[in-house]
Amino acid sequence: MFREFTMPLRPPPAAPDLRRRSLVTAAVLSASGASLLVSGCSGDGEDQDAAEHTPEAERLRAAEAGRRRTLLERYDATVAAHAPLAARLKPLRTAVARQAEALDGKSRRGRGGAAASARPEKEKRPEVPAKEKDALAALAEEERQAADRHTAALAGAPPELARLLASVAAAGAAHAYLLGEKEEA
To answer: What is the DSSP track for 88-121?
Structure first.
């Protein structure tokens, strides 16, 4: 008389507005937050301050800031060659400019991001592939390589600079991922 009704087990539907970019952003923010939590677990503050301002640390900081400025030039060249990509690249370029400023240890907020990347007119811009897809792939590869170099520099960095480099490397890896994504319809 009674029939047994069974409902198929299905996973709940995914949130419609949750996309890969959101997940990557959450992962990067989580990694940044974790590095901030670790920063509170360090030793003597005076020793750390002294380590942050050694000539070796200053050279490392300047070299890593130079890498971010070089990447900033690549973003500018890509936007100059492919104007339709400007809106997509603007947030990433802005992040790279801020990272360069943080590594420089100077605030250029009054002058804006463009002033940080000013260059003499006679210098040649980096070459950019003719196709937008190839230009994005080249930019993604530059981000990956920069992230790898920042990660490699962690070993010789004092604690505060190491945390900053780890954050910049994580952001660079996320940028590379986002640049490699296909345009969503």
So the answer is: HHHHHHHHHHHHHHHHHT---TTTHHHHHT---T
> CB of 34 within 8 A of CB of 163?
no
Per-residue b/e over 95-110, b at no fewer than 16 CB within 10 Å? bbbbbbbbbbeeeeee
∠ CA 23-69-71, nearest 5°, is 50
Question: Scanning the structure block, which residue is given the tokens 């890969």?
Answer: 20
**8 Å CB contact between 93 and 144:** no
Residues 68-79 have pLDDT tens digits of 999 999 999 999
Q: What percent of the chain has pLDDT over 90?
A: 51
Q: What is the pLDDT of residue 147?
A: 94
* 96 in Cβ contact with 74 (< 8 Å): no
Q: How high is the pLDDT of residue 89?
A: 96
Name the DSSP class of 6: -
Q: Helix, strand, or coil here: 51?
A: helix
Counting as low any pLDDT under 70, the low residues of the chain are 1-51, 106-123, 182-185
Angle between helices 159-180 and 86-104 (to 10 degrees): 170
State how far Cα 114 lies from the chain centre.
18
